[in-house]
Amino acid sequence: KQEVTQIPAALSVPEGENLVLNCSFTDSAIYNLQWFRQDPGKGLTSLLLIQSSQREQTSGRLNASLDKSSGRSTLYIAASQPGDSATYLCAFLTGGGNKLTFGTGTQLKVEL
Amino acid sequence: EAGVTQFPSHSVIEKGQTVTLRCDPISGHDNLYWYRRVMGKEIKFLLHFVKESKQDESGMPNNRFLAERTGGTYSTLKVQPAELEDSGVYFCASSQLQSRPYTFGSGTRLTVV
Question: How many CB pairs under 8 A join A and B?
Fold first, then answer.
């Protein structure tokens, strides 16, 4: 059974700082990994998707990596902005490729 | 394109009542999923439709939950009778292919009192 842990649970940083969010998983038999952000009262917005055969994906100031051998994924946010404040979730597509297993999330606050 | 639409956005019901949540996926997306997040826990899978067929309902907590997908279009999730522990946020998602990025709706916040 896949178990997903996200550390830290909450993070507060000053604007402009580069930061790394961590996600660890126990089962390397995954189809892909997605990073999502969730704003209060809103749904989940997909940020990046990394296929099992890939090691990283980049979109703007975001870079996500996947290391199946160590059971880790990281989301790197460059030059953080107050608008980046949200809960960030990693999720793995497993179980025959039809269900996402989510981590508990990291609540990020970027302060002016 | 229009996103995944869920309604109501909020619902407050008394224990023992019935509630029906609705999800309209992105047009053309054969795959439709229900997830939920109960207080303090991670988001968990409930079930997966491919068109109108239930592909996997292993995450449904018990037989008080009934999901349907009429004609492979919108889906409903009925909770009858509702219990206090059913409170949480229910998300719907759709995708064109199983392994492609999911698009999630804004969720329905259900409160059972």
Answer: 61
Nearest to A2 by CA among A76, A74, A90, A63: A90
Find residues 43-62 of chain B whose CB sits inside 8 Å of chain A.
43-45, 48, 55-56, 59
Of A46, A95, A103, the CB nearest to B42: A103
A37-88: pLDDT as tens digits: 999 878 899 999 998 899 999 999 999 999 999 999 999 999 999 999 999 9
pLDDT tens-place string over residues B30-85: 999 999 999 878 999 999 999 999 999 999 999 999 999 988 899 999 999 999 99
CB contact under 8 A, A36 and B104: yes
- What residues have CB less than 8 Å from A58, skipping those under 6 apart? A48, A64
Report the gap between the CA of A38 and the closest CA in chain B (Å).
9
Distances (CA, A) of A53 to A4, A50, A89, A100, B96: 19, 8, 21, 18, 21
Q: What are phi and psi of A103, to 5 degrees?
A: -85, 175
